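Morning, I've got a small favour to ask if you have a moment. Here's the protein in full, and shout if anything looks odd to you:
***
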Amino acid sequence: MKTQVPIDPKELDELLKETHFDDLGNASIREVVRLSQNIEKKTGLPFIHMEMGVPGLDVNRIAAEAEAEAFARGYASKYAPIAGIEPLKEEMSKFVKNFINIEIPPEYCFVTVGSAQGSIALFLMANRLFRDRAGILFIDPGFPVQKLQVKVLGYDYETFDVFNYRGDRLKDKLEEIVKEKNISSILYSNPNNPTWISFTEEELKIIGEVANEHNLMIIEDLAYFGMDFRKDYSHPGEPPYQPTVAKYTDNWTMLISASKAFSYAGQRIGMLIVSDKLYHKKFPDLSRYYSSDQFGHALVYNALYSLSAGVAHTPQYGLTALLKAVNEGRYNFREDVKVYGKRAEELKKIFLENGFHIVYDNDLGEELANGFYFTIAYEGMTGGELLKNLLLYGISTIALQTTGSERHEGLRACVSQIQEEQIPVIEERLRIFHKNFGK
């Protein structure tokens, strides 16, 4: 097995020709995964995978035991309710109250096949609410797959890099785009993937006020729920609570992933929470496509149903058990996932010591939190060039330009798959990289 780096550039070039990559800076997460795996097979060099946000932790036994019990009770042969099983909807409602401090009855809490199904269902709704609006505004950088979903659906979208419009500057930028373009909805993640900034209450209030003024739907992506480790959001019914736009508008929806905070990625299950006011709101233009002009009915029984006949029973029982334990204070999910913050701190230090710099390097003047992702660049290289050069040293990432970032010199690095024993390997490879490329 090869352990020395760099690999022969000719080998990489041959693989790039076979996979038809013109510019690695535009390669998707899954494409980089496939490419790095092919390099591993051809060269025998074990890779450091920092391209994909795969949880590096095992799911808690509470979920595994609940799933096993559901299998034993014969649920695998039955279709689950499209909106989710009642016990899960009840625990979702409690979770939102306990950790976000928002009252929402179970009937407005829905289960999805991962947050990816939730987002594409909301995109199917957003651009059909008004016949004269067809654009989604992404507050970027963001998760590349969501833009891919919009493109596949044939919709328009707008985007801007929020790093240059933090604080009160955000309002003018949002107003400018909303007034000029046919915007139907606004999407953002909080904490932000990939920069790991977190929106302040002031910024969330601005987003809510713009939504109210222009009748826009908000999609709040909480994929990394409670993972701004500068604050502890893990105690049920106690402040501080996960920040949310739901305090400032009734036009909100939330995507809460089970993949990261609960390490439940393989079972493809997520939560979609909808404001009760928005659920009952009627949009006559929805009748062009759906059986009802009521937002909630069209969302659940048309958009979600057309994408899947429901989430499998057993993961629903697994997540129910997890949420019940979290809501009752028997399981603190933060204690498991805070290892990502420790890894990020350690890895940032190694990159910085070897000539790299952090691209998004502060959070409104405050020090960034350490978490699932961070952003890196190396003097004199574009994102695509840096990605390719790091592949020669057995390290795979994705380029920031795929996230909607204006910083095309940078990469997104994910810490989740890195194990403790790989830290010295990364350090040695980056030392050689900097020796060969440093000025």
Remarks:
- The radius of gyration is 22 Å.
- The longest strand covers residues 183-189.
- Residues 113 and 269 are 5 Å apart (CA to CA).
